Every structure is written in structure tokens, then in C-alpha cells.
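A common beginner's mistake is to predict each chain separately and then try to dock the pieces by hand. The better habit, illustrated here, is to supply every component at once so that their relative placement is modeled jointly.
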Amino acid sequence: MAQKTIDRRWIFLLIFIGVALPLIFIIGLPIETTENVRMVYEMVENTPPGSTVLISYDFDPASRPELYPMGLALVEHCFQRDIKVIFTALWPMGVQMAEDVLDVMRQKFPNKEYGVDYVNVGFKAGGIVTVQAMGKNFREVYPSDMNGTPISEIPMLRGVKNFDNLAFLFSLSAGSPGIKEWVQIGHDTYGRPTSGGVTGVSAPSILPYVNEQQQLTGLLAGLKAAAEYEFLMDSPGLATSGMDAQSIAHLIIIIFIIIANVNYWRANKAEKGGK
Amino acid sequence: MKRNIPLIITFLVGITVIFSEFIPHYPFGMLSGELENWFLIISGFAILLGQLSLFKVNILKIKFKKENWQYSVITLISVVVMIGTGLLWGTKDNTGILGNGDQIIAVMGSKPFDYLFDNVYQHLQATMFSLLAFFIASAAYRAFIARTTESNLLLIAAILVMLGNTSLGSFLTSWIPEAISFLHLPKLAEFIMKYPTTAGQRAIMIGAGLGIIGSSLRIILGIERSYLGGK
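With all components supplied together, the output reads:
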């Protein structure tokens, strides 16, 4: 007897409903924080006000649903603590992603001034070599910001010569080049505290860098981590609202897995009974 | 000669960069820094080369009416429109050849490049990635069957991680007393990700690292020559 299977269109339909409905009717499921997220949060909390940090937007719109909320929460946290932020990107589309975050931040923090509190130096091709060169001489890699303003005319960058002048490095990464390059050069070569945010699917390949040597100081993995970060900041946002949808979608997948297994056992039993 | 010169350059550059990691002083540090700058310049040209290659491949496809050549037309139109709007009216804070296009902004609400990026490109990419959810759901239904001991373990781990990585995990196990809090689904998921998964991943990474060292040495020593092209 053949195992019963469900038409995949039913699976697609239920996943669609399971994702769409919680986005409209918010359930408000609880959020529990994990150690990796708390490490990132504490890293920002322990950074003295007035320090300069670098956040690299190494993703494109495909990974935006997971990484953009992280970017928003992290930058908001930095701005709340008066930390100056250098935005950069190892992916061409990352510049636009950073600009989208800045559009929101300009409204939330109208007092923050471009060039004084934050700067966007834009995209640079070259991946790991760009990071390596940045660590040696930031100005040689970025002689000007993304608008063409010379670095020497940007007040917050006057004291930034290399990674030694940055409190921490952070990569919002959807692949390569991305977080691995920042760890290997930023932390392993130059010894700067490095952290990052990645999509849920790529988390297992990055987690080995969260270790006793603190190659990565914590890690934000997937939408849940972004929601946890918002929870720690007590500022629910995009990620928190997306968690209900993700939870229900996962539940539907688990129900289908159970159905598939029940069908398999029944088919197996019937086959044995028939012999 | 045509093959020997690139091989000599590769050998010298490779050796210099390796030496500079161990002896970051003059002249290796300086040479390595200079080579990094060259790499950045070449990377910039690689983007241009990629664009030219994209045009060449698609134009040839259209010319010879190869299978699905219609998509190549759409690709080329899209590239030309995005590059064109970006060059003519610029992006966000950058001015283009024709200025800022204030009249267009008054109609569209933003510059043409930004309008297309925000309203077309972003959504197309997000849609492609979102489709994964549907395929993963369908694949999970077919793949996660408890046939053997190994697949049982995989199935249990998958369900624990799936539940633990959502708010549902916290919701279902929040009643568990503090004394046995390790049974909280998010904590179980964290444990699986932190120890068994990371251990396996480290083994893969060490293997891949050794593989990269091996293939890099083969290239530097001229044993592996496929990057030179030809047979």
C-alpha cells in the first residue's frame, strides 16, 4: 500500500494563511531572550558614549525581512547611548539598506547630525581584502563618504585612522563577503570586539565563532534574535510583530511533519499486515 | 612565456602575502599593503567586467534566439533602465547628470532610481526569498520521516529547534519550574545549536580550511593552473 501524500498546494495555502493572519491579528506570544542576544546587547550597553563603531550592511533586499529589523534595533540602541556610527557595506545593495535604516532614525532622532553622529561611507568591492585594508588605514580605503565629502571634512572621522579607533565592529550579513570576513580580520587580526547578525538559515555556520575566545561577541540569528533585541530594549518593533507569523508557520510545518509520519506508519503497518 | 609569466607573478605575490602575515615589517608589510590596494582597484574593474559580460551573454542569446531569449530582453531593459535613471537623476542624496529631477519627484514621490528600487526591486527579491518558506514546508513534509534511528534523531532535533526558535517555544514551556528550566524549548534549541550543531560545523570548517590551504598552495606553486584558462 502506497503512503498517502497531501497535495503540496494545500501546504502552500496553509502556510500562506498561517503567515498572513498573525500579521493582521497580532497574538502577542511571549519572547524569551537567549545568551547570544544578551551578549550583543551588553556589548552595546558597555560601549562608552561618544565612542565610534562600525556597522556593515552586508545584505540585499532578499534578506531584508530578517536583517533589517536587527539593523533598526541596533542603530537605535547605539543612538540612544550616544554612540557614533560608521555605516558601510561589502554588498552593493547594502548601502541602500543602511540608508533605509537611517531614514527611520532621522525621524526618531532629529537631533542626530550627519558627519557628527553618523556617517555612511558606502560600498567598497573587494570583500576580505577591503576589511584587511580598512584595518590598516581606513582613509586609504575610504578617502570620502558615499556623497563624495572628503573624510578629513567629516568631524566624527577625524580621529578614525584604523580599527584601533573603533569600539566594535558589527556585520549584518547574508552571506559572503560578510560576517566571516569581519571576524577573521576585525577580531582575529586586529583584535577588535566583533559581532553580527545573520539570517536563521546561516546561523549554524556562524555559531562556531561564538566561543571562549569571543571571536564573535554574541550573535543575532534570525528574526527571533531581532525580536529578543527589541524586547531587551523594551521597544517592540518590526521583528516582534513578525514573530507571531513565524511561530504559526513553524507550527504548521510541524503539524505536516506529524501527518506525514502518521501516514508513513499506517502505510508500513498495512504493508506488514498484508504479507 | 604566456603561461610562465602569470605563474611567476602568482608565486611571488602568494609568497609575499604569506610572508607578510608572519613578518609584517618592511618590505613585506609595505608590499602586502600595496597589493591590497591593487586588489581593490581590480575588484572595481571586475564589477565593470561583470556588467559587460552580462550584456555580451544576453545580446548573443537574443541574436541567436536561444531558448528563453525573451528573458534576456527583460534583463537588458532592466539593467539599462536602472543604470540610466541612476545616471540621469541620481540616487537619494546624489545628483545626476540632469540634476535632481524635481518635477519627477513631484509626481513619483522620489527619484526614479529610488522609486524603482523601493517599489520593484526590493519586492521582487523579497518575493523570491519568501518562496523558500513554501518550499521548505513542502520539503519538510516529505523529508522528515522517522524511518531509521538517524532520521528519528534528525526529526526530534528539527522539531525542537523549530519550536525553540519561535515565540511558540516560550509560550508552550513557560510553565516549566525554574529547577528544570533546561527543558524550556528555547533553551533546548539553544543547547542543540550551541553544542552538537557547532561541533559538526567546526569539523566541516576545519576540513574546508585545510582544503583551502591545500588548493592555495597548489595555485601558488603552479601545480593547479586551471585559473589561467585553456586546457
